Amino acid sequence: MKFSYLLFLFFILIGCGENDETPEFIKNCKNNVGSIDRKDDTFYNIVVLLDLSNRIATERQSNKDLEIINTILNIFQNAQKKFGYQFSKDKLSIKICKQKNDDVELNINIEDLVVDMDRDNSRNMNFPNFCKQKESFETSINNLYDYAIQNKSFYGADIWNFFNEEMLSLLKENDGETKYKNKVIILTDGYLNFASAIEKTRPKGTFMRGYYRMRNNADWKKIFEDRNYKLTPHPHDYFDTDVIVLEVDPKKPTEYTNEFNLLSNYWKTWFEDMELNSEVYSKSKPIKDLIPLLKKDLFN
Are 128 and 122 a contacting pair, CB within 8 Å? Predict the structure, then answer.
């Protein structure tokens, strides 16, 4: 026990000390999000799911996405200090939600969009190795957004199908010895819709129907229930998982005054039906207000 404690102090110290011989990637391995409170007996598996549709066509949105992702990365880093960057089993990964039949091939190694504190069940993680993973992560996420903006055919975000076909493989289940908590952060404008030709081929409940009928209607909740506009839940056990939806961007918010509440209701009803806790936040919330929310929501 004493040996483990000394190792812990050693890796904290090498993370703090710098000199002229310190590699540049370690000097850059810093953050400024403040201390992180977390449960002692729980490790966290954080999945960031990206909607890279035309919502990121503007530089303003892509920069906001990157700022959010880097904030999540820095919060993740601060949460590792408790374990001296060595004894943690936390994991942060980026996943891209593409529309079916989207044949765009990425020039990004998806493995570089992962920071895994327990990669291959090894104990080789330490502060320098963490910094290497972080550097690869930061480079790859910037390259990914550059590529997605330039590639005009990169479209769609079939979040409904992603939860059905891929999400389970990304989640961690308690294994008897280790307790895991899954956190899924979705960056999307909040509209689960597709081209009309595609929607005609999809079953009801796999995309958002009828929201245009409920805009500025005082009885929109009743219409939502009566016409069964909700998304169809998947019959999966998603273990211990919370969902945070960020950057929901209501169209014409001054004209359609209930649009955010309407979109939020689609998502929260769907997640509730699948027994997932969820929070939905608007694009209008600045990053300075998101930081304390993410610090609280990601590691509890």
Answer: no
